[in-house]
UniProtKB/TrEMBL annotation:
Organism placement in taxonomy: Bacteria, Pseudomonadati, Pseudomonadota, Alphaproteobacteria, Rhodobacterales
The protein, known as: Mandelate racemase
UniProt keyword list: Magnesium, Metal-binding
Matches recorded under SUPFAM superfamilies: Enolase C-terminal domain-like, Enolase N-terminal domain-like
GO biological process: amino acid catabolic process; carbohydrate catabolic process
Pfam families recorded: MR_MLE_C (PF13378), MR_MLE_N (PF02746)
Lineage top rank: taxon: Bacteria
InterPro entries on file: Enolase-like_C_sf, Enolase-like_N, Enolase_C-like, Mandel_Rmase/mucon_lact_enz_CS, Mandelate_racemase_C, Mandelate_racemase_N_dom, RHMD-like
Length: 372
């Protein structure tokens, strides 16, 4: 083991590759906090998290003022102890998105450092359940996209080997959503998975009606039909919906997931390492889900989640939304629609350090510790 001697904080703003709209918002930019941790032996780990356009400056101040300084002198291998200490240190803002996103950037850096010191890829060190996982694509399914373009994208995805496509719902009427999904089902046939995502756009009555309107299309899941904190509403819907209910991208604590699992309010768990606080709590949620016979299909961050899905037995899907290409070298390898677990030591991301340095927003670059 070796103590932490230096931390570097940076933030890079990445523009989405395509226009992204859903029932409640547009994804305008990915503010990407990046934490680099160096230990006394010179080993380095890099971690990150993200926003969809707001809050990045606050997260960087939280890291610089309250989290990163507490890392100095800690044994880098004591990942669980560090995560717990940082969570308790920020108890006044926990549980909340800002704190969890900041914690995630630190925790993924610590796991990267741990894996590199061990000479192992994340998927092996965290469990090693399998070496590949199926992908579904979201990039061609945004709410503003016309029906014919949705169909063409789903056909192209199937031909490329992807096992499924996800489409946003939340048009003014259930009939309009049903027409769009029906056209895709007719085009790709019965064996290809279709998932739909409401992005918390419905109240309870509308969610029930929309689930019934989409019943005939044999959906892989209905995602975030209602507000993420409406556990009771999701539990009621899960009991009567003809398709699985998926929840998780807007939950920021293992305790939030515990409520959903205990109530039977979701059967697909979409825990996001960048939003729940990192790899440490992600694995807790995944194992909790496995104990209840539930699948894990994490939201976004395919470059990181491919390794985590392959680490656990109940890892079900990787969501294909490329976002780190501009600041990485070799990207995620996908073969016939299957994400291949990276074999290089670390969390599986080949960072382009020079490009990160070039793009980093100068006002948020901070160096803490020895030799700075």
């Amino acid at each position: 083991m070796a103590r932490i001697v230096r931390i570097q904080l940076q933030m890079v703003d990445l523009a989405p590759k395509v226009k992204r709209t859903d029932a409640i918002q547009s994804f305008v930019s990915q503010e990407t906090p990046i934490v680099t941790i160096t230990d006394a032996d010179g080993a380095v780990g890099m971690g990150y998290s993200y926003t969809i356009g707001t809050g990045g400056s606050s997260i960087m101040r939280l890291l610089a003022d309250h989290l990163a300084p507490r890392l100095l002198g800690r044994e880098a291998e004591e990942v669980e102890a560090i995560w717990t200490d940082l969570e308790f240190h920020t108890h006044a803002t926990t549980v909340g998105a800002m704190t969890s996103i900041a914690l995630a950037a630190v925790d993924t850096a610590l796991w990267d450092l741990r894996c590199r010191r061990a000479g192992l890829p994340l998927w092996r060190l965290a469990g090693g359940a399998k070496s590949e996982a199926p992908c579904y694509t979201t990039e061609g399914g945004w709410l503003h996209i016309p029906t014919q373009a949705l169909v063409e994208d789903a056909i192209a995805a199937k031909e490329a080997g992807f096992k499924g496509s996800k489409v946003k719902v939340g048009k003014p009427s259930a009939a309009e959503d049903a027409a769009r999904i029906g056209a895709i089902r007719d085009a790709v046939g019965p064996s290809q998975e279709i998932m739909v995502d409401a992005n918390q756009g419905f109240l309870r009555d509308a969610a029930r009606r929309r689930a019934n309107a989409l019943a005939e299309f044999d959906l892989g899941w209905l995602e975030e039909p209602m507000a993420a904190d409406d556990v009771e509403g999701h539990a009621e819907l899960a009991r009567i919906a003809p398709m699985p209910i998926a929840v998780g991208e807007s939950l920021y604590s293992i305790r939030h997931f515990a409520d959903y699992v205990a109530r039977g309010a979701a059967s697909v768990i979409q825990v996001d390492a960048g939003r729940i606080g990192g790899i440490t709590p992600w694995l807790k949620v995944a194992h909790m889900a496995e104990c209840h016979g539930l699948a894990v299909a994490p939201h976004f961050l395919m470059e990181l989640h491919a390794s985590l899905v392959c680490a656990v037995r109940n890892g079900m899907w990787v969501e294909y939304i490329p976002q780190l290409d501009e600041i990485t070298g070799q990207g995620l390898t996908i073969s016939n629609g299957m994400a291949q677990a990276p074999e290089a030591p670390g969390i599986g991301i080949d960072w382009d350090i020079a490009e990160i340095d070039r793009r980093a927003v100068s006002e948020f670059t901070t160096h803490i510790g020895e030799g700075v």
